[in-house]
Amino acid sequence: xxxxxxxxxxxxxxxxxxxxxxxxxxxxxxxxxxxxxxxxxxxxxxxxxxxxxxxxxxxxxxxxxxxxxxxxx
Length: 73
Prior knowledge:
Blueprint: E1 2-8, H1 12-23, E2 28-34, E3 39-44, H2 50-64, E4 69-72
Antiparallel strand pairs: 1-3, 1-4, 2-3
Helix pairs in contact: 1-2
């Protein structure tokens, strides 16, 4: 399953760091963050608890860039 989100990051470097951290999570097949459009597309494995992963992803955004945000569209 693929879901799209809106996000805010201060720079392309932060977006890249966040993307790489998200890809390391169990249950994530792929992640793409567009700094230019402030959109995030995440492909989840089947039978994954998406709500739990969304919480983890939100924490990754804050850890890498405290001013960033991650939201459902």
